[in-house]
Amino acid sequence: MNRVRRIGHGPVGIAAAAASLLGTALFRGTLTGTAGAWMLLEGAALAALTALTVRHASPGRAAAATVLGTAALAAQPLRMLDGAGASATEYVFFIAFGAVLGLAAAGAGLLVRLVARGRAGALEDVRRRERLALAAGLHDLVAHDVTGIVLDAQATRAEGGGGDAALERIERAGLEALAAMDRTVGMLRGEGTGSPGARTYGVADLPELADRFAETARLPVRCDLDPGAAQRVPRETGEAVYRLVAEALTNVRRHAPDAAGVAVTVAAGPANVEVRVADTGGARPGRSLPRAGGRGGTGLIGLAARVEALGGEFRAGPDGAGWAVEAALPVPSAAVAE
């Protein structure tokens, strides 16, 4: 329907303006009361068509409609003035009035067009940001579980034995990855965060995340959380903290599978929450696992952008013999986790 309107308004508005100009050029005779009323009706219709054409038609047709519509409305009073003994002042006044009416109609159409374009651009920008956020969430959560599946299989093959327990861990990690993908696909379909199975992760879920990492990666993990941190950190910030820890642990499994251990620390102060995930580097005796494939790095870039968007600071780099990911996120004084 919108496409039909965009195609139709251009030719109709231009044709109406051209017909009005032709009528003015061919008009001869006296303008009676009935003819005067029809002229006023014609002027109103012409102004409306000019506005609609500028609003919906292509830029070229909108410009043509502006020129022809303004010219037609400026010339229309000539039907009334010719032969009526009008003075030069009256000619100037009525012609100027018609031209102003035409320009005002075109300006109104242009204003509505610009407002609609700005609204459409803003809506597309919001959709793009949402798609990027969903893609980041899919990467952070699914990559964490899938990397665990790969490395758990590699560890089982390298160490031998424990097949049933390894299969159980692989099954659990696979189910978590599928659930995360289902939630993301549901949101992409417009089902929203309130759809069945949807879940927002936060600071309170970090111990479970650390336990799953320790089990699948077979690395000792120390998770230190400030008491009450889950209640003091707001939901959006808590989700960013969870994603940061998940991505940092995923990078440990990818790039430092032989690390001796990992430490996760979350300290929630009155004004900010500080997060640190660091592996100790080195290697445990008798443990030598292959590194996971892939270049990586995109997750940390996305996390840095997310932290900065929330007004925080982000750092990732070497830390002694290992690697550390650190972030400081502001916490509103009255924030309470939902």
TrEMBL record:
<dbReference type="InterPro" id="IPR050482">
    <property type="entry name" value="Sensor_HK_TwoCompSys"/>
</dbReference>
<dbReference type="Pfam" id="PF02518">
    <property type="entry name" value="HATPase_c"/>
</dbReference>
<keyword id="KW-0418">Kinase</keyword>
<dbReference type="InterPro" id="IPR011712">
    <property type="entry name" value="Sig_transdc_His_kin_sub3_dim/P"/>
</dbReference>
<keyword id="KW-0472">Membrane</keyword>
<dbReference type="InterPro" id="IPR003594">
    <property type="entry name" value="HATPase_dom"/>
</dbReference>
<keyword id="KW-0597">Phosphoprotein</keyword>
<keyword id="KW-0547">Nucleotide-binding</keyword>
<dbReference type="InterPro" id="IPR036890">
    <property type="entry name" value="HATPase_C_sf"/>
</dbReference>
<keyword id="KW-0812">Transmembrane</keyword>
<keyword id="KW-0902">Two-component regulatory system</keyword>
<feature type="domain" description="Histidine kinase/HSP90-like ATPase">
    <location>
        <begin position="239"/>
        <end position="331"/>
    </location>
</feature>
<dbReference type="GO" id="GO:0016301">
    <property type="term" value="F:kinase activity"/>
</dbReference>
<keyword id="KW-1133">Transmembrane helix</keyword>
<feature type="transmembrane region" description="Helical">
    <location>
        <begin position="91"/>
        <end position="112"/>
    </location>
</feature>
<protein>
    <recommendedName>
        <fullName>histidine kinase</fullName>
        <ecNumber>2.7.13.3</ecNumber>
    </recommendedName>
</protein>
<dbReference type="Pfam" id="PF07730">
    <property type="entry name" value="HisKA_3"/>
</dbReference>
<feature type="transmembrane region" description="Helical">
    <location>
        <begin position="12"/>
        <end position="29"/>
    </location>
</feature>
<keyword id="KW-0808">Transferase</keyword>
<feature type="domain" description="Signal transduction histidine kinase subgroup 3 dimerisation and phosphoacceptor">
    <location>
        <begin position="130"/>
        <end position="190"/>
    </location>
</feature>
<keyword id="KW-0067">ATP-binding</keyword>
